[in-house]
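If your schedule permits, I should be very grateful for your opinion on a structural question. I would ask you to consider whether the tokens describe a fold that such a sequence might reasonably adopt. Thank you for your consideration; the sequence and its tokens are set out here.
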Amino acid sequence: MLIFMKPVVNNLLCIALCMQFFCLGVCAQNEVTKSLLRTAPEAENIDADYIMQYIEAFKREKQDIHSLMILRNGKVVSEHWFGNNAADKPHPLWSISKTFTATAIAFCIAEGKLKVTDKVISFFPDKLPTEISENLKKMEIHHLLTMTTGHDVAPNHVRFIQDADWVKGFLSAPVEHEPGTFFIYNSMASYMLSAIVQKITGEKIIDYLTPHLFNPLGITNVTWEESPQGINAGGWGLSLVTEDLAKMGLFILQKGIWNGKRLLPEEWFDVATARQTASIPAGQRPENITPETKEIDWLQGYCYQMWRGRHNTFRADGTGGQYIIIIPDKDAVIVTTAFVQNMQAELDLIWEYLLPAFK
């Protein structure tokens, strides 16, 4: 009898060893990729029917959603890719790039390299115009972060002048309003934040963020467009995969903590996600806003390179429907990549179908 039992025992030992090595392999892979934990929606008290209804709704409305990832309690509960999009396919983020740029500023502040009250002109003495206006003198990093630089029209035209020095172009633009008193969506303000980081660290923002943010979060294969001067665009040009956006959303939701380790002070997120100024949608003028538009999410206030939204939310967003939506009340993050024309309509469906999913 023992003769027949021996192979069985050996087989069981082999199976046990294989399972142990498999577990070690999975753990090692997870440590390298730092992929987020996965679970079922029901395990985190989410009604999966609402998620399917949302998918049906945006298809019915012909919204070209490329990916959807939903997190609750730090875990991925639902993930979908549509069309020819895939989990390992980086996606242009457009203005979501701004939130990563502001985070680089946060690391510089934490390291004592700068303060939000530092004057913008102090970093570029060799690029200043001949005559420096009083308003330009008053412009601070805080005003770049909140897009209250004082420009009546954002100096975005500088980007389209061949071989132009974008910093010089920004500093030479008229500053009609006192900084802090007038909001206008200004991607070149975000570029200036990137230029300041490179000026004080000696590194492009993509390289500076690699050990500070990308490596700890397991964000790899990062690309970021540059100006003719070799400075990352700051306000646009970053490409990442969907899960990388989810990691960033979770990092912000957790106020700077990642895997139990604090990477940035909590105080930064208290300020950076709070309403800093009244806001209007990109491309709009304050005088054109009417009471009928009060339900627009872009009128809920601007933070530090992020927007406040309805339902006590805040978000990073980018042209075409790229979103990192953070819902503190639900301990949740919703990420989308897309190519849609009406970004408010995209948010409306999210509020209608996904918000009620969180029980």
About this structure: Confidence is low (pLDDT under 50) at residues 1-32.
